[in-house]
What does this fold into?
Amino acid sequence: MTRIRLPDALTLSRLFFAGLIMFFLSVDFTLARTSALLMFIIAGTTDYLDGYLARKYYGSTPFGVFMDPLTDKILICAAFVSFVELQLLPAWMVVLVIGREFLVTGLRLLAAYRGHIIPAGRWGKHKTGWQVVTIVAIMLGLAVRDDVVAVYYPAVLADYRMGFSYVCYGLGLAAVMITLASGWGYFWQHSPILRQQ
It folds into this structure.
């Protein structure tokens, strides 16, 4: 029986962390939001570690090349969907983010079928970076709101919630704009693949 390699195990662990993040963002008990933030940070660390270990010691495999970006997308989408449930982001924003990920993944699969590899571009990296910043900032704000302000400063909770909602909307809007721009860039750059018969 083939043993799973450490980088691949770390990659798959992000599916587990995605579930934990959704759990901690959906329940209401002390330090739940802080736990969600911690899970996201640990998951991000596994993303760095699996790439480092694959490059340094284990080498890349088709499984890792395919699953690494896929688990990253699932992790990010899990956080954004949870924000909709918490009424921190409107659903249309998250639909656009998820839709872009599906479309670009489909483009990559089509390119692979036709013998082309589409690497991560500069705008794709900017997109991922801003999505991570958005998620961490919103989770940090949630942790402060529910684990600090609500417990120790309940008198200012209403004002905090109002200001926080504007911050979430602004961050989400910026993330959507960068996400859509990066998706358009992929399709524009690789449009010859779509025109192949």
